[in-house]
Amino acid sequence: MDRFDTMLAFTRVVELESFTKAAMSLNLPKTTVSAQVLALEKRLRVKLLHRTTRRISVTTDGAAYYERAIRLLNELEETEAALTQSTASAKGRLRVDVPTPLGRLVIIPALAEFFKRYPEIQLEIGCDDRPIDLLEEGVDCVIRVGNPQDASLVARRVGTMQFLLVAAPQYLNTYGRPMYPEALQHHQGVHFFSSKTGKIRPFMLTHAGTEQEIPAMRKLAINNGDAIVAAALAGLGISQLPAFMVQGYLTEGKLEKVLADFPAGSLPINALYPQNRHLSSKVRAFIEWVAELFEGCRLLQKTS
């Protein structure tokens, strides 16, 4: 039984406090992971884990071994990555999670180029924006919009989400076109709210040199960007949406910019991955490709 395999199995059980979760994250049967840890304890002649019917905890010897093992595993990956810089080294299963609009409109339409560049990667993409435990769910990295909240993850900036205030012509013809930010309080707003916190995102505009929250009548709040686009197209009110999601409708005249002279703000787009895992060649390949893809899209870059 390979020593590094048993070491990896043990560290994952410690991190997830579960043989079942560790097996899922490693894409192995639970019996295999259990056998690897037992073999490790037998070889070392020490008890590494306390096992009960309710929980698994690490022993003093196990904690000491974990600290050394995780360093060795990271050094091994770093050494291999340094010696295999060609694209051929980027291979194997890669699981990522991306926000649905970015996946649908930007990332997935460009995947033919990704697979042409990295033919040995088997990619699994989750299109979601929910909080994810990367280790527990076996996800290698996620793309997220906004400032990182989890200190256990490494963040790599890959782009910027620009926002615009928009509305359908039929709405503006009925209710008028606001000429200054304060006028929004007399208009119907279609807002985004977070499924996680329930918090409604206010309209933000740069006014008098500073970014300010601009009040509007909250006629409707929706927790999905595509649904907000549909509401805006239906003439239900003014919405603040990512520029890349609405540019096509602006070009077709189905939506119009509102208060275009007042910038509607932006949020960073980051690639996130666990900090206790060395960045593997396949994860590095995906992040570099996404950064390059977003760099080529002016709507996903910060405006001056």
TrEMBL record:
Keyword Nucleus: no
Keyword entries, A-Z: DNA-binding, Transcription, Transcription regulation
InterPro entries per the UniProt record, alphabetical: LysR-type_TF_proteobact-type, LysR_HTH_N, LysR_subst-bd, WH-like_DNA-bd_sf, WH_DNA-bd_sf
Domain HTH lysR-type: 1-59
Domain of life from the UniProt record: Bacteria
Any Pfam family the entry gives: LysR_substrate
Membership in a protein family: Belongs to the LysR transcriptional regulatory family.
Protein name: LysR family transcriptional regulator
